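User: Some background: our group keeps a shared notebook of sequences we're curious about, and every so often someone picks one and asks for a predicted structure to add to the entry. Today it's my turn. The entry only has the sequence so far, pasted here. Could you supply the structure so I can complete it?
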Amino acid sequence: VQLVESGGGLVQPGGSLRLSCTTSGFTFSNWAMNWIRQAPGKGPEWVSVIHSGGGTTYYADSVSGRFTGSRDDAKNTVFLQLNSLKTEDTAKYYCTPGVYWGQGTQVTVS
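Assistant: Of course. Here's the predicted structure to add to the notebook entry:
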């Protein structure tokens, strides 16, 4: 099983990034996919989930209205569009179906 997050980087407040998570080794289309982030010195924070099938999405209050999740089951990939970024969004972002984890991608807003 592999999950590879990408798309992070350094961005100014108000900017945007698009994170991707490409997966292999499990039946991606059957799984809801979560984005979790962890800021330095803090515990993990759930950010969003996109369900399988219809792709219903849910978001943490802290990102609702600014972040948008999507998925491409044909490419076994999940995305997270980050808009109107704030300094408090700085964290390492991970995608996970709950049992497998990638290495994360760093988002720094400064």
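Suggested note for the entry: The chain is about 0% helix and 50% strand. The radius of gyration is 13 Å.
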